[in-house]
What we know:
With 232 residues, chain A is α/β, with parallel strands linked by helices. Chain A has 7 helices and 10 strands. In chain B, the strands form 2 sheets. A 6-stranded mixed β-barrel of chain B has the order 2-3-8-5-7-6, surrounded by 4 helices. In chain B, strands 11-12 form a two-stranded antiparallel sheet. In chain B, helix 1 packs antiparallel against helix 10.
Amino acid sequence: MKILTLNNVHKIYNESExxxxxxxxxxxAFHKGEFAAIxxxxxxxxxxxxxxxxxxxxxxxxxxxxxxxxxxxLKPSQLIDFRMYNIGFVFQAYNLIPVLTAKENVEFxxxxxxxxxxxxxxxxxxxxxxxxxxxxxxxxxxxMSGGQQQRVAVARALASKPxxxxxxxxxxxxxxxxxxxxxxxxxxxxRNEKVTFIFSTHDNRVVKKARRVINxxxxxxxxxxxxxxxxx
Amino acid sequence: xxxxxxxxxxxxxxxGGVFSSAVFKGMSDQRVREAIRYxxxxxxxxxxxxxxxxELEYTIDGAGAxxxxxxxxxxxxxxxxxxxxxVMIKSTASGTGVQLMGIDPEQEKQVTAIHERxxxxxxxxxxxxxxxxxxxxxxxxxxxxxxxxxxxRSEQIVIGEExxxxxxxxxxxxxxxxxxxxxxxLSGGVFRVAxxxxxxxxxxxxxxxxxxxxxxxxxxxxxxxxxxxxxxxxKENKEVGPVMKQLKEQYPELSIMSWKDIQPELGMIIQWxxxxxxxxxxxxxxxxxxxxxxxxxxxxxxxxxELGMLMAIGMNRLRVFGMIMLETxxxxxxxxxxxxxxxxxxxxxxxxxxxxxxxxxQGLQAVGYNPxxxxxxxxxxxxxxxxxxxxIAIIASVxxxxxxxxxxxxxxxxxxI
Lengths: 232, 417
């Protein structure tokens, strides 16, 4: 089942007099249950591409279609709601809310959605269990390791049951053990819960685990290697 | 940490604002209290032409009966009948013009409190001035606290410390008083200084002297039952309005003045102090507002990533705006309340102990201010300030909140701090 389609997407930044063509006509399709890595050197346009997929940025040209909705045509306020209900985010710097506990961080997005307390708590516990952090549910981010914080971030990204999770270099700040642990958790969620993950990364450990690797260079797709077909 | 700075800044601003306002308020209240207590009493009645031209014959008809009538009015505490005559007073060293008040000491004590500030030497008056003579007991003689000595055989006069200095006289010195009698001839008499009073208004000290009414009557050839002035002390300050109204209705033929009419500069100074007070508060609140804006902008900049993340995961702009506004308002109000509590304690403490402005006392005393200052502020002032802080906090929160709104989540997330 196709959940995300990019049709000839361009992104041009006007930096003073010079135009920067960050994304230059990319067309891609992603299916439910993918575990895909977008790989490329710095400045290749992978972050810009990810921002457009996540509705944080809009294409200059072309379409980004998530579940039959062209998100390029949404108004900014609609886009915010769209992101809240359809897309999960995991950031490089974890970006948890420092004053909230692990459990509250996971619940936060459901709070924004106005879900009832019981539902929020059950879902948060379920997710913390999935990332192996039930015992740290009352800890604040400052009292957790980077790996633990990133696992909370993964749980948070999944809280609203999004169509897919976008992870922008999720392992960039982690040591190898935490990286492996995080990747195992994400892989399990992907295989068992059919959660779709799309990463941007230049971390080989992530690339190795990925079942689809898309190489980007100069804003264009260099190669798109499908290592394992998604079971439908 | 930032939050703490915002709160401390607001708190310090509040302490400064409330305390300086309390100093001004205390000062003006004190001045009014002392002016009423020592100088003007609450209300004075005169012959309608007396205030313009202080001729001997402008006395109040039937003053004795009138005084008794007024005394029985509700709200009136006491009444004193005075003769008031402009005279020349001379010592061996110099001379000057003063208002000589002929009083009945026992009556006068009920209305004003000059007698509580009568000392038995210029030296003591200067050194211990403004203090209760009872506290400096060893210097007490029978004139102290009593206007005149009971034992003296000569005619007595009580003068202000300022006048004593000008005339270079002390207690027991002789002064000569010259005046025009009822029939237009010049008359004079010798008085012995029985006591020297010291109040906070040196102009008053310099221009008003007291003798017994009988003595003044015999000097001028007037009937001692007549009076130029009836001074009225009320039970409470707030009675001035109603009693004034009643008196004006009942005695339309007389000039009736409240303390504000008698010392118009006093009312003016009080109004001016009030204006100053609001100026100070406006300046402090403005500075506070800018301080809050600045610090909250720093907060927004520092939390760019967090705000970017919140917007990325679906927090809408209204909520981000509200969050920054609420945070600013909450911090400002918390700081404001802490500041007001501390300021309240400070005002209470200094209000009880007093602040000695001895170093500036000469200038202050010349315009009638006590060098011991007792800050004071009303509850309504705190309420107004609370409302103003809330208002300032709301205004100050708008700009940082707008700044937060303008952030692009994609860019905000990538900013390295």
